[in-house]
Amino acid sequence: FITTPILTRLFLPDEYGTWALAGGISMFLVALAVSGLGSAVIRYYPHYKANATLNVFFATIIILSAVVIVVIAGLGFLALYLTRQFIPPALYELLPLVILIFIAQGLFTIFSSVIRAQEKSRMFTSFQLFINYGGLGLGLLFVLALGLRIDGLLWGSFLAIAFSVPLMIFKATKHVGIHPSFINFTDALQLWHFAWPMTLGNIAMWGLRMSDLFIINLYRPQNEVGLYSVSYNISSKSIELLVSLFLLSVSPLVMRTWEEQGREATEKTLAMVTRVYLLLCLPAVVGLTVLAHPFVALLTAPEYFEGYKIVGFVSLSSFIWGLSNIAMMGTAIKKQAKRLGVNQIIAASV
User: Fold this and answer.
1) CB under 8 Å to 84, separation ≥6 — which residues?
2) How far apart are alpha carbons 242 and 120 in whole angstroms?
3) Do the Cβ atoms of 320 and 282 come closer than 8 Å?
4) CA within 20 to 30 Å of 41's CA: 76, 117, 220, 304, which one?
5) Distance of alpha carbon 282 from alpha carbon 76, whole angstroms
6) pTM for the whole thing?
7) What is the per-residue pLDDT across 44-90, written as a single tens digit (0 to 9) for each?
8) CA dist., res. 325 & res. 108, Å (int)
9) Alpha-carbon distance 346 to 327, whole Å?
10) What is the tens place of the pLDDT at every residue in 193-220?
11) Which of left, alpha, beta for 262 (phi over 0: left; psi -120 to 50: alpha)?
């Protein structure tokens, strides 16, 4: 609601489309590298805490994350270089910066998952607000004061995330001694065994949610990527204001309930969450679909109005995505990561 009116008045649809594609590449690399590890953090943190072995957990997850991020960054550079002839020139120039954002965002994703697992919602929100609006503020400063364009927005995002990561690591690991000698390779394999099927599923979901930008870019003019991206973001982010209330907070709550109180209490918690989710989110989807045109017109410049046609489809898909995450929580509790990954791949394929 804050960024869309600003950005659509500063940038034409083709520039906005380039920015959206750059963000899509970064999101893909994050999904490929650390999304599964983030899920593993949520699932296993309560277990390590209950056994007073958080020193082993942090040492192991840090080295595992660092290795994966470095490998994916190197492969990303190579893949983007080899496919440069298929990438629009305006986007290709931004790719080194996109890789830097991925590295910072990968570390941020891991430790934001730790903070979620610790149920420190206020701290989690503070960091999220800072990287989003601090990054936007820096980016706009670069655009308005230095004359940069999309690269200014990306530099603002990178600097905000890079500043946040050390502070986040300090806050998340406070009072826990971390030393390389605490690294447990058996535990690393266990975390990776849980993470990699989730990673495949998350890549499939990335394909469902983001690959449409690249398909449009292949067959349609660049400005249509911008039109689509703006309306997609407006509709998905609007519904996800509600969906994220459940997905960000419920997973740590459910995992802790399972570890401390057992099956019956966990089933009651999930049933309650599902009822409240339906009562809050379904009416919001209907309302946003009905009011799509005036809503898009309120938030964007006239060049972007045509994108209102996709709002209902995106809102409904975001609602179903949230509901499916609640439905699949039982498989996460039972550490059935392969089944979770397969379910997500099937959902994305359908």
Assistant:
1) 92
2) 19
3) no
4) 76
5) 39
6) 0.71
7) 888 888 888 888 889 999 999 999 999 999 888 888 788 777 777 88
8) 22
9) 15
10) 888 777 776 776 666 666 676 677 777 7
11) left
